[in-house]
Amino acid sequence: MLLENDSARVEIDLARGGRISSFRIDGMEILVGPTEGLLDWGCYPMAPWAGRLRHGRFEYARQSFQMPLSLPPHAIHGTVHQRAWEAESEACASAGLGHDWPFSGRAVQNFALEESALRLRLEIHSEGESFPASLGWHPWFLRELSRGEPAELSFHARAMYARSADAIPTGEKVDVPEGPWDDCFVGVDSAPEIRWPGALKLRLVSDASHWVVYDEPAHAICVEPMTGPPDALNLLPVEVHPDRPLVAEFELQWEREGELSPGDSGGA
């Protein structure tokens, strides 16, 4: 699947998790390219849960469920990033949640490329009984583009989840320390921004309530909007019903260096 205009080109790999495999703005690739695995490149949807699921287990309706340990000792990032997606139209794709997920459902993605923004919408639908869920996106942004200076992250949150020894949020909120981070945050009142001085500024806008920032790697920065924290199926699940899907949106707005943001007049 391909979306293209005068300023950007977006390639979506339906066979490998319905992910954005390439995102070029003014000819500059901003995403980490394909690797042997499925977890550390592109920008992929996370559903029916986002982040780690502690020991792959959760409970719902007085039943216990065990998911495969895709990143032992935990399960991670849901099921759909491992599945082939099907095109529903030129800008819409869907995938079943898979045999490992104990409930009948599907995920739907919509893509819209505008002059200076890419708008994404992700939905989780039940095709039978209700179930708990969370969703999100996992973009891997390159620290260095083909021009400009290395990336600078602007990110501000009021609180962060404390993590247990096995890197899973405990549910307790704590003050935000200095980075680098591999953590989940709440109270993000202003849109995170990644700036490559001399080249590009990217503004990340979402209605998701949680953000994970993973900026420890030397080659990439991950800024991930999510509807709940890692282990959300245990900590903060959202119920999906046949008549009530879980839906979130994510917009990536870009601005070339030296340009005004949309709506700015330049005056006082």
Low-confidence stretches: 259-268
The average pLDDT value, as a whole number, equals 95
SS element count, helices: 1
What radius of gyration results from the CA coordinates? 18 Å
CATH class: Mainly Beta
Terminal Cα span: 43 Å
Helix proportion: under 10%
Strand content: over 45%
Whole-number count of domains: 1
What is this structure, in a nutshell?
By secondary structure, the protein is mostly beta strands. The chain has one helix spanning 232-235, and strands at 2-4, 8-13, 19-25, 28-29, 43-46, 52-53, 57-60, 63-66, 75-76, 86-89, 92-96, 105-113, 117-126, 131-133, 136-139, 141-142, 152-154, 159-163, 169-174, 182-186, 193-196, 200-206, 210-214, 220-226, 238-240, 246-256. The protein has one domain: Beta-galactosidase, Chain A, domain 5, CATH 2.70.98.
Question: Can you tell me about this structure?
Answer:
The chain is globular, with a radius of gyration of 18 Å. Strand 11 and strand 12 (105-113) form a beta hairpin. It starts with a strand and ends in a 12-residue tail after the last strand. It has a single domain, classed as Beta-galactosidase, Chain A, domain 5, CATH 2.70.98. The chain has one helix and 26 strands. Mean pLDDT is 95; it is low at 259-268. The strands form seven sheets. Strands 10-11-12-13-26-22-21-17 form an eight-stranded antiparallel sheet, with no helix packed on it. Strands 16-24-23-20-18-19 form a six-stranded antiparallel sheet, with no helix packed on it. The chain has a four-stranded antiparallel sheet with strand order 1-2-3-4, with no helix packed on it. It has one helix spanning 232-235, and strands spanning 2-4, 8-13, 19-25, 28-29, 43-46, 52-53, 57-60, 63-66, 75-76, 86-89, 92-96, 105-113, 117-126, 131-133, 136-139, 141-142, 152-154, 159-163, 169-174, 182-186, 193-196, 200-206, 210-214, 220-226, 238-240, 246-256. It has 268 residues and is an all-beta fold.
